[in-house]
Task: inverse folding
């Protein structure tokens, strides 16, 4: 009897570990890009390399009173999905046709980036209320499913 975790469980457990590296003081999110059962890249949310972390400097969004899900551009950090794609690009790793595993459902900004990067499926754990993101993912034909 095979007692190993399913591939989804395996990748989601790793995604949760990746999220622990996040430097965002509000939320820790992790992402993996996977193809043919191989991890291509990982990402977590936080400021760009060489920039003072938000937990040291303070959260700009909190300072400005910006609620979650609004005005994504007013943040010093990058999202986990964005960082995973950037890491793949920096290292010349093609990601077209891969699956994105995320601890949280992508926001509209990340949804657009994942669609244009050629991601074929997005698997997420925690729902995130972004109707436009869900609408655009559905229209694009990218599969979206919640891992429970």
Result:
């Amino acid at each position: 009897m095979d007692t190993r975790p399913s591939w989804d469980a395996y990748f989601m457990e790793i995604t949760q570990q990746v999220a622990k590296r996040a430097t965002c003081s509000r939320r820790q999110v992790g992402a993996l890009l996977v193809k043919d059962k191989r991890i291509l890249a990982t990402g977590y949310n936080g400021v760009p390399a060489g920039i003072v972390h938000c937990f040291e400097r303070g959260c700009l969004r909190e300072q400005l009173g910006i609620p979650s899900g609004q005005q994504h551009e007013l943040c010093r950090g990058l999202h986990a999905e964005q960082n995973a794609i950037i890491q793949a690009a920096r290292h010349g790793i093609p990601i077209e046709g891969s699956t994105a595993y995320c601890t949280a459902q992508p926001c509209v900004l990340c949804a657009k980036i994942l669609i244009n990067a050629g991601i074929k499926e997005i698997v997420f754990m925690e729902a995130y209320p972004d109707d436009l993101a869900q609408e655009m993912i559905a229209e694009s034909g990218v599969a979206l499913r919640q891992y429970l």
Summary: The CA atoms of residues 111 and 137 lie 7 Å apart. The longest helix spans residues 7-19.
